[in-house]
Amino acid sequence: MSDKMRPIAFDKLMNWALNEYAQQKSIFGVAKVFRHKPDDKKLPIFKERLEAPFGPAAGPHTQLAQNIIAAYAAGSRFFELKTVQKMDGEELSACVAKPCITAADECYNCEWSTELTVPQAFDEYVKAWFACKLLAKELDLGDPDGFVFNMSVGYDLEGIKTPKIDAYIEGMKDAGNTEVFQACKKWALANVRRFAKVDAAYIEAVSPRVSDSITLSTLHGCPPQEIERIATYLITEKNLNTYIKCNPTLLGYEFARKTLDDLGFDYIVFDDHHFKEDLQFSDAVPMFHRLTALTQARGLEFGVKLTNTFPVEVSAGELPSEEMYMSGRSLYPLTISLAKKIAKEFDGKLRISYSGGADLHNIEKLFACGIWPITLATTLLKPGGYERIYQMAEALLNCGDQPFSGVNVAAVSDFAEDALGDPYYRKPIKPLPSRKMARKVPLVDCFEAPCRDGCPISQDIPAYLRLAGEGNYLEALRVITERNPLPFITGTICPHHCADKCTRNFYEESVRIRDVKLEAAKAAYADLMKELKKP
To answer: 37, 296, 460, 467: most buried, per Cβ within 10 A?
Structure first.
């Protein structure tokens, strides 16, 4: 697989999405397409509306248009777009070691902002915006105005003021006269006959205002005065709803070290230099008060994004770099602890957007205590990928229509304490079985489900799990009995070595393969016997 990102032209994106859906009912591989009903509740934010308060974080899932479209199809409705900065394209790519992400358990990365050029990134975001508007209407995915794009920029004021970044920000605020927006509209109008529910009037009315909000990302060691200058510029000069992304180093070295040690992540190596060089809590609090007053005077929203990734040393050759950035479940106890600290300091009045270790296990709790929007990265790099979004969309369906009214300090405090004792966030003492296969796979057509390799009779486990999940138990049992004549017995007392190889069996619960086998046998045994008795 190439490490180069190659944007796809809008006409090819739309042809791909429409043809794939017509033939397979999927969109860019997302087979479980989530739909909101017209009367579903919507949350107000930035003078816009959200059908669901979550989506992908600024990272690998918001760089290319097709990734954003796939996340939307799966149920995401808030998109924190990949960070842009003055250094881009080949210049930045040359500075990023590859591979730059690994997510076996906790996730590590050594990449920064988008490796596209800033104009290319802009084009990707506008294409995704226009495509989601068209697909929402045509495929009844939900309210075409029920999702929000959030810009992300870094890393210094001088860079943000450059013509390149300024043009990006202004274009995202109003893309109407840009070449890419006009090209998207032109294609849609020229192909209006391909749509059943989208007409020319709808296409002409697609809003060119892609984003009026921004998340500021700063490098470790950025002085507090520079952070405040950038935020002030974005608020006063660019008139943007503004969030500042905070680093987990605000917690202090001793707390972070003890927390990770107590949870079994004592092998993660870091010293205290970032804690000393980064923004200090004593500087952050008065700054956030000043910026809150500044935005309120202009009818804008201000908040903090918790948290950025956590800088650690490359100690076991995880990535080809000297330093890397940790995220995922090991980051959750730190991030929720910082949310507790900030919520207490501001009596719940400061808005918190959340990212550190968010997943299905905690997303409902986060929203229930007033922390939203919530963005995801590591969980989408796990087996299942974008289709994990569907479960979260189900969990947060119709979650409310009230504006942000504060963070529940007591609830956040409870969740922070719970995280320190929750086995889900604790590294197992005993290493889990390896999911790797001993045999060599071919160079191409090499996909093989590890669970099938772990089965002594090499049953087609993915096939019967899929069929059983669809409720087609008879066909699932047919697949099982091709190799296994004893589904009741092996569905009860099988040693279940397939689960040892399950790709979800790292820190999550593996798929209950044996139970599904027994379920299929119980549900379809009589029907299968009738088939076999037929002459």
So the answer is: 467
3-state SS class at 304: strand
Cα distance between residue 453 and residue 468, in whole Å: 20
Any alpha helices (H) in 205-354, and if so which ranges? 224-236, 253-262, 273-277, 281-296, 332-345
Amino acid identity, position 259: T
**Token pair for 33:** 């397409």
Strand partners, 324: 312
Tell me: pLDDT of 239 over 90.
yes
CA distance 364 to 397: 10
- Element holding 367 (H helix, E strand): helix 363-368
* Contact between residue 206 and residue 183 where contact means Cβ atoms under 8 Å apart: no
Rounded (10°) angle between helices 10-24 and 179-190? 40
Distances (CA, A) of 134 to 10, 196, 242, 530: 12, 11, 28, 48
The pLDDT score that the predictor gives to residue 444 is 65
Q: Going by C-beta distance under 8 Å and a sequence separation of 6 or more, which residues neighbour residue 422? A: none
Whether the pLDDT of residue 1 is over 50: the answer is: no
Distances (CA, A) of 40 to 49, 71, 141: 11, 19, 12
303 closest CA partner among 235, 363, 224: 235
Under DSSP, the state recorded for 459 is -
CA 152 to chain centre: 15
Contact 454/500 with Cβ under 8 angstroms?
A: yes
pLDDT in tens, 119-149: 999 999 999 999 999 999 999 999 999 999 9
Tokens, residue 312: 């650690």
Task: Give which of 270, 269, 275 is closest to 253, Cα–Cα.
Answer: 275
Encoded tokens for 297: 């005077």
- Which range is least confidently modeled, 87-91, 152-156, 324-328? 87-91
Which CA distances in Å does 369 have to 53, 123, 186, 366, 404? 13, 36, 44, 6, 11
Question: Which tens digits make up the pLDDT trace of 413-432?
Answer: 999 999 999 999 999 887 77
pLDDT in tens, 36-62: 999 999 999 999 999 999 999 999 999
* Digit-coded pLDDT (tens) for 93-104: 888 888 999 998
Q: Rounded to 5 degrees, what are φ and ψ at 117?
A: -70, 160
How far, in Å, are 31, 62, 286 from residue 386 at the CA level? Answer: 10, 12, 39
Tell me if 64 sits within 8 A of 5, measured CB to CB: yes
- In this structure, what DSSP letter does residue 264 have? T
**How far is the C-alpha of 455 from the C-alpha of 168, rounded, in Å?**
53
With 50 as the cut, is the pLDDT of residue 509 above it? yes
DSSP type of residue 534: -
The whole-model pTM stands at 0.92
DSSP H or E stretch at residue 73: helix 65-74
Count of CB atoms within 10 A of residue 390's CB?
A: 19
